[in-house]
Amino acid sequence: MIRRVGGWLHRSRFVGLALIGLLLCLWEYSARYVVVAATWPPVTRVVLTWMANVTDGTLPGHLLATFWRQLLGYGIAVILGIGLGLVMGYYRFFYNLFEPLVEVLRPIPGPAYLPVLVLFVGIGNEMKVILVLIASFFPVLLNTYAGVRGVDVIQLDTARTFGLTTLQTFRELILPAASPQILTGMRISLAISLILAILGEMIASNDGLGYFTLLAQRTFKLPEMYAGLFTLALFGYLMNRVFLLGEARLVRWHRETTGRT
Amino acid sequence: MQLQTVNPPRCAPASESYLTVAGLAKHFAAHGRAAIEQVSFAVGRGDFLSIIGPSGCGKSTLLHILAGLSAPSGGTVRLQGVPVIAPRREMVYVFQQYTKSIFPWKTVLENVLLGVKYRSAAPRRDLVQRCHEQLALVGLGPYANYYPYQLSGGMQQRVAIARALVCRPDLLLMDEPFSALDAMTRAELQDLLLRLWQEFGLTILFVTHDLDEALYLAQRVLLLSASPGRVGDTLAVPLAYPRNQVRTRSDPTYLALRERLYRFMVEQAVAGRGKGS
Predict the structure, then answer these.
(1) Shortest Cα distance, chain B CAs vs residue A160, angstroms
(2) Which residue from A minimizes the CA distance to B118?
(3) Using alpha carbons only, how large is chain B's radius of gyration in Å?
(4) Which residues does chain B have within 8 Å of residue A161's beta carbon, measured at their own beta carbons?
């Protein structure tokens, strides 16, 4: 009996959820009886604050502001990254032309572009969108051209023996063959895009979750501050989940072919 | 869709060769050594020619050049008198590595469709119909909507054959297509190939390192010497079609030819080692 329960615990994903529950209980307990301070409100109060801010539309509004900035910057980055990545991966000349430049620009951390951006486009939405764009661009670009360069020569010869033109080869072979790696790049960029959107909003903004969280801290509305974090955790989790679902559908053949789970 | 059962009359007279290879050579830029040298032979329309040789003698290199997939360092390939400098629509190359050559993101039907959809102006519905017929012909009728990963190796190579034939080529260039398959599957596919060869009036160049396979299939076997590959000998195989996996392989003529081939292969293997290549 004990061994059966032990075995179940060992395999089940329940333990992970149980740990989260335990940590939340610890939070509640410590805030009530150990660290009684305004900076550490009980989690039940945070949840109540969160629910109040959700129902009165405050948090959804800020979330929406963050979401569209992130999505716009990310979307443009994905289009540009895949476009340039396909060209760089397929044509040796463009690889030789751009690769050194990419290698020089890539190590610059996204936030470091901030001062420059403020000089050129100010502190409005352009700044945040471009910040997201720059940081999301490189993982997509790198993974795309690596994926294209990794297309098997036999597959390319197959396309040639059937007389496919370059454009047809891209559509029938290169894009699908590289898609698992392109999607990996897109997934990495998705996480980065949220980071940069929040950062941009913390620097200068009057809406968005970054703004909301920082303002709550500055005005000492600490349950609100934690509620902001809750929202980000939930949002980030859901976004990744949705992405993974889409990815699994798109490249099911890849998982099945390589036997990876 | 009616299948061709006889060769249509062609402009080239029967006496003239369909495919002519003259003085073909290939040197690799990396080390300057020759993979093949002074390879010359001719193939008549509707012939089945096996090309055999010790490993590393440049069999695949030769077939690649014939297909227009890579350029020779010297010599010419002419198909019906016209030099081959790029892949031509009347010929299709069938690869050994079917797991790569069949695109894993496409269903069986989509894979076969790839062989014809950019080469025919017919409406898609007709093309799909043709693909279904082709699949039925290679015994994959019920598997049109399967993905390659759901099929065995032999079935995947059948997909490759269906895809190669759906655009009605005249010439098939096959690079050890059955070498990765188990013995029974291989025998089945050999018989399937012979049936299709006769049904479609194809010309087939079949590269293999398996001398039994070379003899069983072909009307003529071209023997390449150890590297650099040259034409060592050609062997006519005067065995009647349809051939039979049991009877043909125990025919005295077959056995005598097999012995000759075997001797040649052993000599070449020894010679190849002697050259230290």
Answers:
(1) 7
(2) A164
(3) 19
(4) 67, 69, 87, 92-93
Query: Alpha-carbon distance A144 to A150, whole Å?
Result: 10
Alpha helices in A91-124 (DSSP H): 92-105, 114-121
In a domain, B153, yes or no: no
**CA torsion B73→B75→B80→B85, rounded to 10°?**
20
Q: Give residue B14's pLDDT.
A: 44
Q: Of A152, A163, A172, which has the smallest distance from its Cβ to B100's Cβ?
A: A152
Q: Which amino acid is at A117?
A: L
Q: Do the Cβ atoms of B17 and B40 come closer than 8 Å?
A: no
ipTM of the complex: 0.87
Of A154, A172, A253, the CB nearest to B100: A154
Q: Tell me if B214 sits within 8 A of B206, measured CB to CB.
A: yes
B178 close to A (CB below 8 A) = no
In a domain, B54, yes or no: yes
Tell me whether residues A172 and B114 touch, CB distance under 8 A.
Answer: yes
Q: What is the pLDDT of residues A138-157, one digit of tens each?
A: 999 999 999 999 999 999 99
Total number of domains constituting chain B: 1
Q: What is the pTM of this model?
A: 0.87
* A154/B104 Cβ within 8 A: no
Q: Supply the range of the domain harboring residue B266.
A: 19-90+169-274
Query: Which residues have C-beta within 8 Å of that of residue A247, sequence separation ≥ 6?
Result: A183, A187
Question: Is B137 among the domain residues?
Answer: no
CB contact under 8 A, B118 and A165: yes
Query: Which residue on chain A is closest to B146 by alpha carbon?
Result: A253
Residue B12's pLDDT is what?
40
**DSSP letter assigned to residue B146:** -
A251 in Cβ contact with B103 (< 8 Å): no
How confident is chain B (277 residues) per 10-residue block, as mean pLDDT?
A: 40 64 86 84 95 84 93 93 91 92 96 92 93 94 95 94 93 93 92 94 94 94 84 89 92 94 86 62
Residues 6+ away with beta carbon under 8 Å from A150 = A177, A178, A181
Residues of chain B contacting residue A157, judged by C-beta atoms under 8 Å apart: 64, 69, 93, 95
What are the C-alpha distances in Å from B260 to residues A91, B50, B211, B254? 49, 15, 10, 10
Do A148 and A89 form a contact (C-beta atoms < 8 A)?
yes
- The domain that contains B234 carries what CATH number? 3.40.50.300
User: Degrees (nearest 5) of the Cα angle A235, A236, A237?
Assistant: 90
In the predicted structure, residue A13 carries a pLDDT above the cut 60: yes
